Amino acid sequence: MEHNRLMAEFSLLIPHDDRGDAHRNALAAWTEAYWRARLPEAEVIVAGVGADPPNRSANRNLLARMASTDLLAFIDADAISSVAAVRRAVAWSRKESLVKFAGVNWVSARATKALLAQDPTGEVRVMPGDITHDNAELWGLGFFMRREVLEAVGGWDERFVGWGHEDPSLTMAVNTLVAPMVRIPDWCFHLWHPRETDGGEHDKTTPGFLRNRELGLRYRALEGQVEAMRELIGLPPAQGRQS
Questions:
Q1: How many domains does the chain have?
Q2: Is residue 243 one of the residues assigned to a domain?
Q3: Which CATH number covers residue 208?
Q4: Distance of CA 20 to CAs 29, 51, 240, Å?
Q5: In this predicted model, what pLDDT tens digit does every residue of 85-127 receive, in sequence order?
Q6: Do residues 16 and 35 lie in contact, with contact meaning Cβ atoms separated by under 8 Å?
Q7: Which of 56, 8, 60, 45 is nearest to 163 (CA)?
Q8: Residue 34 in contact with residue 121, Cβ under 8 Å?
Q9: Which domain holds residue 63?
Q10: Contact (CB, 8 A) for 144 and 99
């Protein structure tokens, strides 16, 4: 195992907290096996800090620290894509600041459950009838970058607790402090899981989500303003880093 880590070309990092959710745990185990079977050149790491409520930024920062390479491919535990798309994104991340998929196809509950019943190391197909809807210009699910890019923005902002706004905020920070992100012409698939509304994780009226939204709006307002963005993140002034 250690030999494989040392020989890895890039790190495929899957954030996941085991919170006793059987379906989410099944998704994480299935996607981990899916990637391990298809990307022998990658070290695949699944980890989370176990915070309650969950902290996705902390999970990703933990994964970055665990990675043995400086090419970081963050892919959510409920997302898959073609192998060619991941390799293309990793290749682009060698020269670009941040690379993302063009969009996402949302897989139905029925099709997701059927996938979970299949061997993830075998042939996997998602058919047009399996898709409920799609979204272009996806904010999250996949982030591909060099370690130096992540360090330039101070890592993921762990003030985002629970669900919402950490993904666009990280993107805006990179756009401002490093260089504009790029999208490859590949889409990914979001596997179904229940959405926890009415006071749950995906309820946009809870105090936690509203705090995330307020912080996210500050990122949005400061995009393109280098010194103000550095101050928001908690980084020293750019000129203070010069000798």
A1: 1
A2: no
A3: 3.90.550
A4: 13, 13, 46
A5: 999 999 999 999 999 999 999 999 999 999 999 999 999 999 9
A6: no
A7: 56
A8: yes
A9: 2-237
A10: yes
**Does the pLDDT value for residue 194 go beyond 90?**
no
242 within domain boundaries: no
Tokens read off for 219: 């990122």
pTM here is: 0.91
**Residue-wise DSSP of the chain:** -HHHHHH-SEEEEEE----S-HHHHHHHHHHHHHHHHH-TTEEEEEE----SS-BHHHHHHHHHHH-SSSEEEEE-TTEE--HHHHHHHHHHHTTSS-EEEEEEEEEPHHHHHHHHTS-TTS-----GGGEEEEEES--SSEEEEEHHHHHHTTSS-TT--BSSSHHHHHHHHHHHHT---EEEEEEEEEPP-----SSSTT-TTSHHHHHHHHHHHHHHHHTT-HHHHHHHHTPPPGGGG--
State the pairing for strand pair 79-80/182-190.
antiparallel
Q: Before 168, cis peptide (omega within 30)?
A: no
Domain membership of residue 102 (yes or no) is yes
